[in-house]
């Protein structure tokens, strides 16, 4: 754990996974921030490995395993970052929860769990980040959305319901917090991301990468840094990202 006396501005990433989350973490570390990496405790080893790799590259990172659906855990995590690591300048919500079931096969448990992961956890992160940012009247909160944020496709009732709700949450927060100098943004990641998940289900990923027809996590991360660095005279609230070959 870093000493507060050595503190830099902090960036909390909820959902610091192996691909997009890791790219976002590295990008904000290059901006001179201490990235606080959050993922469920069962991924603690992978989280620490990511923190170690960022540190080896000259950045500052702390692995902070926690369940983002747990209100007490989220409150404690944000308080700990502020007390022990540094002032929270950026908070990124990057939990996916992409599952596909027909409506007849979607159980109440599945629907509730997806909502908890992709929406409720976002509410907890947004609220806890805002509590600390409001004290300083500055900060950036970014929510990662998906195609399902704006349209529900067949078989994605749970995912679309959760992501659409997350989008509405981001809109509400932006209207409330924007006038207080807190930039709230929502990204619509409208296409396949070059990730472990996609590589398992789409066999032609190598060809798509060769044609620049799949979203690159590093390029997504560059856009997140851009959102944070925008002048407040021209803030973007919603940013659509898709490869050039993606259908609109």
Task: Please give a quick description of this structure.
The protein has 248 residues and is α/β, with parallel strands linked by helices. Helix content is 46%, strand content 16%. Strands 3-2-1-4-5-6-7 form a seven-stranded parallel β-sheet, with helices on both faces.
Strand content: 15-25%
Shape type? globular
Examine the secondary-structure arrangement and name the CATH architecture.
3-Layer(aba) Sandwich
Instruction: Work out the helicity level.
Output: 40-55%
Total domain modules: 1
Across the major sheet, the strand order is 3-2-1-4-5-6-7
CATH class term: Alpha Beta
User: Mind summarizing the main beta sheet?
Assistant: 7 strands, parallel
